[in-house]
Write a sequence for this structure.
């Protein structure tokens, strides 16, 4: 419960939010327009949306209306300009959970983020399962066949992302983006290295390599993990929400 989507078109503010949230242990993804904000704001992929109202493409209120119309329940904190009372009211009417007036301090934002994620924690799953592997999302612990396994924070996050998308192919770029952040060198092999760590700790059969593309969680019926010698796999990602930035 730590994935934050930021919809903010002003690079300085987006960068301030991203850095602060990451330092506080959240993952942060940025979109810079209202169309992308509505498209990427899905409760399956994010736990919270921080939504600037003044966005290009369509404004934040339109994006909010769109995602609520779709039945998306993820919490939304709206950012408004000072004195924009009508915006604030409209935002709350459209289903925003909270608002913050610019300029705001990062501590104030963080307090609101924590409060909204606490609310949300009450109706979200507390554990993810894949075969013998269980991720306890509350205590941030992992067990294999009931035996606790030590994972670093990044390993845990990588495992969590894979377990949240069973059977879905996730590209190296998507995993880099989500676990290491946008600034990471895209040519890096760090994803492969960490997949190796996870396989060692959680079982060699847990994660399937999709050659030339990335990885996905192995489904229970699959006998083994290698795709060597098989025809080229799917190259397009079916879920555009991963591309958000
Ligand atoms: Ca703006």
């Amino acid at each position: 419960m730590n994935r934050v989507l930021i919809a903010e078109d002003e690079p300085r503010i987006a960068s301030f939010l991203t850095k602060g949230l990451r330092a506080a242990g959240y993952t942060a993804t940025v979109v810079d327009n209202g169309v992308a904000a509505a498209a990427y704001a899905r409760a399956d992929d994010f736990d919270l949306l921080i939504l600037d109202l003044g966005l290009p493409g369509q404004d934040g209120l339109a994006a909010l209306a769109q995602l609520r119309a779709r039945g998306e329940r993820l919490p939304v904190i709206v950012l408004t300009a000072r004195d924009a009372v009508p915006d604030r009211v409209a935002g709350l009417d459209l289903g925003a959970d909270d608002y913050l007036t610019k300029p705001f301090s990062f501590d104030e934002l963080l307090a609101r983020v924590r409060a909204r994620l606490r609310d949300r924690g009450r109706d979200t799953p507390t554990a993810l399962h894949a075969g013998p592997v269980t991720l306890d999302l509350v205590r941030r612990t992992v067990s294999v066949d009931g035996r606790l396994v030590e994972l670093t924070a990044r390993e845990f996050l990588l495992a969590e992302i894979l377990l949240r998308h069973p059977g879905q192919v996730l590209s190296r770029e998507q995993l880099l983006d989500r676990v290491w952040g946008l600034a990471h060198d895209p040519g890096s092999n760090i994803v492969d290295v960490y997949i190796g760590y996870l396989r060692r700790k959680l079982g060699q059969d847990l994660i399937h390599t999709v050659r030339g593309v990335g990885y996905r969680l192995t489904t229970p019926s699959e006998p083994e993990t290698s795709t060597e010698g098989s025809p080229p796999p799917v190259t397009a990602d079916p879920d555009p929400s991963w591309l958000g930035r």
Summary: The CA atoms of residues 17 and 23 lie 10 Å apart. The helical segments are 11-23, 34-40, 60-69, 85-93, 106-121, 153-164, 172-180, 190-202. Residues 9-10, 52, 54-55 surround calcium ion (CB under 6 Å). The chain has two domains: 3-121, 127-244.
